[in-house]
Amino acid sequence: MKIYISVDIEGAAGIAHWDEAAKRQGDYPEFRERMTAEAVAACEGALAAGATEIWVKDAHGSGRNILAERLPAEARLIRGWSGHTYDMLQELDESFYAVALVGWHGPAGHPNNPLSHTLTGFYGKLTLNDVPCSEYLLHAHVAALCGVPVVFLSGDRGICQLARATNPAIMTVETNIGHGESVISIQPALARDRIRSKLTEVLKRGFSNHVQPRADHYALRMRFKHHGNAYRNSFYPGARLEDAETVAFDCTDFLDVMRILNFMRV
Predict the structure, then answer these.
(1) 228 Cβ partners below 8 Å, 6+ apart?
(2) In terms of pTM, does the model score above 0.85?
(3) Residue 154 and residue 175 in contact, taking contact as beta carbons nearer than 8 Å
């Protein structure tokens, strides 16, 4: 059984400020350790369910955060960014049994995490077919391109609720509840215990119903925080300026959604 685990930091237990997520800040080492520990817990949960091969994507910032020597021998670690359109699921293909997302967070404009964002800080809000567009939603569609189900997610309450609204069968672990610029967190050790046990539990089930349904049409709306970024990016082929801060893009192939978002992040 081959499992893909994508790990972010903004949904790790207790994180409340960008200084804790930024590599050059003094608070970062503690949360790098916490991100690593949650990744290890997920690997242990997958192994307990019978996984024989695990691919871990370091999916935060530089892509160089997880302390590799802490991972079990069965794990391969993807560090850095290749530029592939699958982004936080780089190297995913049909050979994987399931995807698990650890330490993920709410989308741009969502109030349940002080660090909520989608892909980059340039966006004030993204929607996909009129639904708030989180990194979870984007990558659930990416996984569907490969026919691989996303069966597990840990992170703030907001992203867990949004994930369950899209996929009621997904197993979630809520690490934090955000209020303004603060969070209420469960204890990190409890978060790790739940990540480990809940991932084991869900991997032992049948979960063909977890695969994200494909749509016939994708309407992406990207509202930028600065109108100049919207104007510049409106020249992407097929895009148009809907208002001073919003770029609209419509397509029928979800891969085109990931292409435009990857190119607009530059």
Answers:
(1) none
(2) yes
(3) yes
